């Protein structure tokens, strides 16, 4: 095919889009909604996955010991823990480190000053991470035998977060996909009908083109360009709306998950091109497919 | 499809089909549902002929022409163009047939979203003409049909006669070997009609076969060309240098 023809064809597609601008706009909007639905659920899935990974890696168990327990005893316990299959790492926090952690806590300076190097009531502790946070319960069982040595086990608090996370993940995975599939189906149907409408108004045109000698291909090309245009415009619009939505949603996610919040803004920034190109691809594909499908029946002349 | 109207075949030898008639209708019948539009029509048209197709409204003139560009298929019988049975053309071959024929449609069939210039250019674009060719030929032919002033108007801004002349320009622009004109002067005043007929004659003299379907008694009688008269789907007379007899 000659380049002249290609240029001519591109112009045709653009002109047709403009001359049917209201219907074209409608198709573009419906396409935008479809793309938004797809990407919101995809991002939600990714976010939940990433968040649960990051939460899992942060969840640990801190076992604090009474001051009268001998240092050797704690160290032998640490060695024993390290041999457990479920344990990923252990870390011994002595009085000095406990103090420096205390110093970094977000509390009032007056309270901070209550603890000094000479009068330090902070306990020594073992910080234990498991490969799978749910296995921390086994570690807790292990410490059942050493209850007299232990002043406090901070594990119960985290159980809550873990459970929440598991719930969200399940919800998004199971119901999210069903919802997005339903949305995609509905949207494709709407787009198909919108495009079919724009083409129906041009049924006579297609017939005339064929009668003066245009090949099916030549008649189709403007429709392909139009379909692609819907996809291109919709993906730009949808990416922009997504950006706005993320700005709005991000703080809500943070407040729900507390300190383990996943930075949606950062995620969007890092994956901008991937998100945009994915939408562009999906949008152009749906647009071109719907457009070709709708033009098909009028080409029989 | 290359050899459709070409004087030489693919090996460069004179085309044997050249010797037979350009168009041949053999016992062609056409029904639209219950309505019989054509009944056992036999017709031969030679290369370079100028044929007037006349007859009262509803006689089947347009149907004959529509069959020639395969807008419709006959219900029965065979139609051959340059020796090829056009009923047997595959869907993909149709554009090649239509590109060799120029057709002026009774209802103009202009593309509503294209202006005069674009409408005329479209007939060249479908043939893969270069930009240069289009820029050269289109204004010339628009000038020839007297629409130079209206180049940028859209069909809905044109009068019936002007639309008709755009349709004529589009049919002529790619210099077809066969020109089919369905009532091309129907909406034109006397002077304009005469000019268009002169144009058709000039094109015919240059070697193009012309089929002119018309109601216009004066035109037919002044032309002194072959006249094929139809009535109720049948050919009732076929005269060389004929007159409008109904
Ligand atoms: N698409 C169609 N569907 C049904 N009937 C049709 C169709 N086209 C034509 N006819 C009928 O076929 C017959 C021949 O029609 P045709 O258009 O060939 O007449 P014509 O000779 O061109 O008439 P006119 O001089 O008015 O243009 C008419 O009776 C017409 O009603
Ligand atoms: Mg007619």
Automatic annotation (TrEMBL), chain A:
- Name the Gene Ontology biological process terms: cell division
Its membrane topology? Multi-pass membrane protein
- Membrane-spanning residues: 22-48, 175-199, 219-246, 276-295
Stretches assigned to the ABC3 transporter permease C-terminal domain: 177-296
The superkingdom listed in its UniProt entry is: Bacteria
For this UniProt record, give its keywords in alphabetical order, as a comma-separated list: Cell cycle, Cell division, Cell membrane, Membrane, Transmembrane, Transmembrane helix
Compartment annotation: Cell membrane
Q: Which GO terms describe its cellular component?
A: plasma membrane
Domain FtsX extracellular: where? 60-146
Family to which this protein belongs? Belongs to the ABC-4 integral membrane protein family. FtsX subfamily.
Cross-referenced PANTHER family, in alphabetical order?
CELL DIVISION PROTEIN FTSX (PTHR47755)
> What protein does this entry describe?
Cell division protein FtsX
What is the native source organism of this protein?
Candidatus Nealsonbacteria bacterium CG23_combo_of_CG06-09_8_20_14_all_40_13
